[in-house]
Sequence to fold (117 residues):
Amino acid sequence: MRNRILALAALAAAIGSPLAAQAQSDVTIGRAPAVVDSAATIAVEQRPAFREYVVEQRVPPFRVPDRVVVGATLPESGITYYDVPQRFGATTYRYTVVNGETVLVEPRSRRVVEVLD
Fold:
């Protein structure tokens, strides 16, 4: 009986471990920047300079009816995406301003990967 219990416990641990590992992500809840992918984004120390850059570029803000959150897909038309300059780090993402917030977007899927506040 004791061996069965130990075997069941070991089996449950083996099955549950991969699920727990998959459940972990880089998403932060709240106003902190949230990241879906672990690909290179703008370093924390570079963000103030990047925000200044976006303001200097006078990027026109776009409005969407929904709240902008990480994982959301932006509309296919009506929004312009801009390359992130190399000086802010190598990234494949593009940026735009939506509902007053600067966001990093995966260009092919138009999925928001980070909201910079």
Strands lie at 82-83, 94-98, 101-106, 111-116. Residues 4 and 10 are 10 Å apart (CA to CA).
